[in-house]
Amino acid sequence: MQRFTDMPPATRSNGSRLAGLRRGRRWTQSRLARETGYSLAAVKAFEQGRRSLDRGSVILEFARALDCHPAEITGQPYTPEDQEGQEVVAAIAGVRRALLRHGRPARPTDEEASRVDLVSLTQRVAQANAARQSSALPRSAEVLPGLLRDVQVAVDVLEGESRRQAYALLMSAYECSMQFLYKLGRDAESTLAVERVVWAAEQTENPLLVHAANWYLAGEYLSIGEHHDAADIIDTALRGLGTPRTPEATSLTGAFHLKAALNGARGGDGGATDRHLEHAREAADKLGGDRNDFQLQFGPTNTAIWSVSLCVERGRGREAVRTAEHVNRDLPADYSAERRGHHWIDVGRGYWYNSQRDEALSAFLTAEKIAPQQTRMNPAVRETVRTMIRTQRRSGLVELGMRVGAV
């Protein structure tokens, strides 16, 4: 039998990594079952790859018991084998360098200082965010390092209101970098970027921007299972927003309710999930249309997409499939590729939970067509496809498995 340590990294399942971490603690499968509350049969099925270990809440339970980061179970960061994916990953060094230089004097050359133009920088930041939302990771990789440098220079050389505007652009550029790094599974760098987002937002002296930055901060705590801390940040923001009187504040309030719903789903609080999702729907109805304030893409469409995601987070395959049927019918073809790609990933997982294997494969292929690199780098896709291959080896499935690194 092939040992875990002999297996190529790309072919290791979340279950095999879980088994390795368990053995590293010198725990038996029975001990892991007792510590997490899962049955011994479930632990064995996860470790043997007969049951997909892809749900965030389940991964967090095991990570908490084994005192490890969830990425140690999911195997992130993952290095793709295709040329385009490797070029995207190669750009991480430049983004990381810009993040590490945060807060230090930019020491611009005379030429760099003379080129500072807020109008041009605003356009470039908007273009970078548009590339990210269209899931054009190669384009993001191309523009982010230079953009971060130029906005950091602007913060250094400008004064007064112009400097506050530059800080707002810096916050947005850091946020774009965070999303880029997150999609590539670079958790440490992504967390660093979130800290930079919060800091830059505070320099703007704009309360709404500070709340928007804390939306991402709440997500950091949620991702490692610190649900009380995430809830505290969310509740503080919702109290600060109060009864929203502008579309921007309404949009942000709705986005926080979606984050709270996810926190409830990951933390096993179904009542909170349902309650906050309903509040988000009310905010979306109040807006009457989709908005992109603070790059959060809140509105009726994204709320509908989240309604499917939350079913998947709770392991409710039948409900996810039923909900997705309505969402798919109304999903605008020109909605952001980033969100549409994530939606079809969740649809595929919902079909898988509902034992609809052919439909699951079709949904994953749709996600890949919409957002290729985003789908191939998604840990839930890799884990689910790997499990599908173990239980039903078919040519189209194996080909997708090769592209996502599952075989």
Notes on the protein architecture:
This is Helix-turn-helix transcriptional regulator. GO terms for molecular function: DNA binding. InterPro entries: Cro/C1-type_HTH (IPR001387), Lambda_DNA-bd_dom_sf (IPR010982). This protein has 4 domains: 70 residues, Orthogonal Bundle (434 Repressor (Amino-terminal Domain)); 126 residues, no CATH class; 78 residues; 105 residues, Serine Threonine Protein Phosphatase 5, Tetratricopeptide repeat. The two termini are 17 Å apart. The chain has 23 helices and no strands. It has 407 residues and is mostly helical. The N terminus is likely disordered. The longest helix is centred in the middle third of the chain and has 24 residues. The chain is globular, with a radius of gyration of 21 Å. Helix 13 runs antiparallel to helix 14.
Task: Summarize the helices and strands and which ones pair or pack.
Layout: H1 14-24, H2 29-36, H3 40-47, H4 56-66, H5 71-74, H6 83-90, H7 92-100, H8 110-114, H9 118-133, H10 137-157, H11 160-183, H12 187-204, H13 207-223, H14 227-241, H15 247-267, H16 270-287, H17 300-313, H18 317-330, H19 337-353, H20 357-370, H21 372-376, H22 379-391, H23 395-404
Helix pairs in contact: 2-3, 6-10, 7-10, 9-10, 9-11, 10-11, 11-12, 12-13, 13-14, 13-15, 14-15, 15-16, 15-17, 16-17, 17-18, 17-19, 18-19, 19-20, 22-23
